[in-house]
Specification:
Strand order of the largest sheet: 1-6-5-4
Number of domains: 1
Number of strands: 6
Oligomer: single chain
Number of helices: 6
Largest sheet: 4 strands, antiparallel
Structural class: alpha+beta
Strand content: 15-25%
Helix content: 55-70%
Shape: elongated
Order of helices and strands: EHHHEEEHHHEE
Distance between the termini: 9 Å
């Protein structure tokens, strides 16, 4: 067994560092596509005016994010719901979905990346096409919310698809199960 984990403080720092390229990658194209038709100042004022609705939507989407991890595990493990659990790492307010049985790296990668694509990338693509600033803002927030997932993908990037892996029970990361 080989442990691949990352300290939560380091993961948070990496998330802040990754903020810049994500905003550049999506923000600049959105701005150049829509700056003539969107009054960004008014859009930001509208977002501030609806802060309680936004906070509610954020909470709902945090739950949806974790449920998407669970849905992926359910599909990839043919309905093995008994080994899925949810929780929060209270010291840094990080919600999680944990699958306790080993899966292949390929299955693990799919389960890890799914929420970031559905709640982050797809809304950002929709916003780029339609010019919807609110959807753009939520897409950025939820893509950033998936940074921890992308960090896990990064730390397992060199592992072979057929290698068996399981969530680490107490830390951010996983355990590689190796044949000795």
């Amino acid at each position: 067994m080989r442990k691949l984990t990352i300290d939560s403080n380091k993961a948070n720092l990496m998330g802040i560092i990754w903020l810049i390229p994500i905003v550049i990658l999506f923000g600049l194209p959105f701005y150049f596509l829509w700056h003539e038709t969107i009054d960004f100042h008014t859009e930001i004022i509208m977002l501030k005016a609806n802060i309680f609705t936004i906070l509610f939507v954020l909470l709902v989407f945090i739950v949806v994010h974790e449920l998407l991890h669970a849905l992926a595990y359910l599909i990839l493990t043919k309905g093995d719901y008994k080994n899925i659990s949810f929780g929060i790492i209270w010291r840094n307010m990080t919600p999680y979905c944990h699958y306790s049985k080993p899966v292949s790296i390929l299955q693990y990668r799919i389960a890890v990346v799914l929420p970031g694509i559905i709640t982050g990338v797809i809304p950002l693509i929709y916003a780029m096409i339609t010019g919807n600033f609110s959807v753009f803002a939520f897409g950025i927030i939820f893509l950033l919310g998936a940074i921890g997932d992308f960090i896990i993908l990064w730390i397992i990037r060199k592992e072979k698809a057929e290698t068996m892996i399981k969530d680490h029970p107490d830390e951010i990361g996983c355990i590689i199960l190796e044949d000795d």
